[in-house]
Amino acid sequence: MAEKTTLSSADVAKLLQDPSGENRAVAASKVASTFSADSLSDKEREIAESIFRHMLKDAEVRVRQALSESLKENPEVPHDVASALAKDVDEVAMPLIESSVVLTDADLIELVKTRGSDVQKAVAGRDDVSENLSDVIAEEGSEEAVAALVGNNSAAISDATFGKVLDKHGDSELVQGPMANRQELPVAVAERLVTLVSEQLKDHILTHHEVSPGMASDLLLESREKATVSLLDGDENTVQALVDQLHANGRLTPTLMLRALVMGDVTFFEVALAKRVNIPVVNAYKLVHDKGGMGLQRLFEAAKMPPQLLLVARSALDLFDEMLETAGDDQDMFKQLMIERVLTAVEDEIDTDNLDYLIGKLHGVQADNHVG
Fold it and tell me: What was the pLDDT predicted at 241?
């Protein structure tokens, strides 16, 4: 039979006969569990509040801890009682700090400024962290507390606060991981973060967060190259995994596919088209390389690719086949020649954004070759 949760006359008698810490803790829990506007009259509520305030002074930590545990989710707790418990030792304070809606932003900000890392982490993990509170945690909190904050998807965090986090903890793997794995990141934050994190987290940001088209293209190409996938002989399994993630998160855009193709990544282009049309890669390969030219056009239409990109893609594929025999294994030279030839062949067909991007990549390749 379940133990009664209300304070009975027998409990009072037991408390009078044996006022031990254990019995006082039981009494605290039972009084707290009945504290509700629906179950108590005004007089009874007043008595209960008096008992709480008396128990706040109890020397036994377990008595105050029992009170905190029983009141942590009660929205009707008097503010002074909740505040006093939250300022108590960690064992007493934590339940209220983690859960109580009675605590105000001012209460929580004071705790962040005056307490240690464990309390700061508890505040950072709450369901109702405001932008103002987040900013204080970023300014005053420990590295562990900041990691808890950026890992809390319910926390409201401004762009400026994200900036502070990156300024102070941008090189911390403890902070980078939770931030990269947030459900949403502002574009500017994602682009700044991607310059700091590991290859694995770069891939995650590419496939899960909004970044500018140029940054997305650079990340894709870097990811493919760092995975030691040759421009001339792609590993289809590696590409498929990346394409699947990009597609699942709405990142498999025509722009991304075109830029990868012009940079020489034909395998990615083929797998991406197959994914958009939901056909086997081998079928997409045959259509892409159809000598009659109609296969690529039909594939473009089925994949809902912008028709103005068709000429660019067809020219890039023709040049790719030709250059396989002339560029050798020098990937930088391959990219430089590929971009130059595509720009020369179809400059009028490339929109301004793609034109600017490819010219920028061409200059980058040329600069690298010059330095080398």
Answer: 80
Q: Are 71 and 82 in contact (CB under 8 A)?
A: yes
Q: The tokens 């890992």 sit on which residue?
A: 151
Tell me the pLDDT tens digit for each residue of 18-59. Answer: 445 565 666 666 666 666 546 666 777 777 778 788 888 887
pLDDT in tens, 110-155: 999 999 999 999 999 999 899 999 999 999 999 999 999 999 999 9
Query: In whole angstroms, what is the distance from residue 296 CA to residue 133 CA?
Result: 55
Q: CA 268, 272, 273 angle in degrees (round to 5)?
A: 120
Dihedrals phi, psi of 293, to nearest 5 degrees? 90, -20
Crossing angle of helices 105-114 and 131-140, rounded to 10°: 10
How buried is residue 225: exposed, middle or buried, by Cβ count under 10 Å (0-12/13-18/19+)?
Answer: middle
Who's near 181: CB < 8 A, 6+ residues apart?
151, 204, 208
Q: Is 256 within 8 Å of 219 (Cβ atoms)?
A: no
Two tokens, residue 199: 């290859």
Single out the residue of 331, 201, 229, 7 nearest to residue 211, CA to CA: 201
Three-class DSSP labels, the chain = CCCCCCCCHHHHHHHHHCCCHHHHHHHHHHHHHCCCCCCCCHHHHHHHHHHHHHHCCCCCHHHHHHHHHHHCCCCCCCHHHHHHHHCCCHHHHHHHHHHCCCCCHHHHHHHHHHCCHHHHHHHHCCCCCCHHHHHHHHHHCCHHHHHHHHCCCCCCCCHHHHHHHHHHHCCCHHHHHHHHCCCCCCHHHHHHHHCCCCHHHHHHHHHHCCCCHHHHHHHHHHHHHHCCCCCCCCCHHHHHHHHHHHHHCCCCCHHHHHHHHHCCCHHHHHHHHHHHHCCCHHHHHHHHCCCCCHHHHHHHHHCCCCHHHHHHHHHHHHHHHHHCCCCCCCHHHHHHHHHHHHHHHHHHHCCHHHHHHHHHHHHHHHHHHHHC
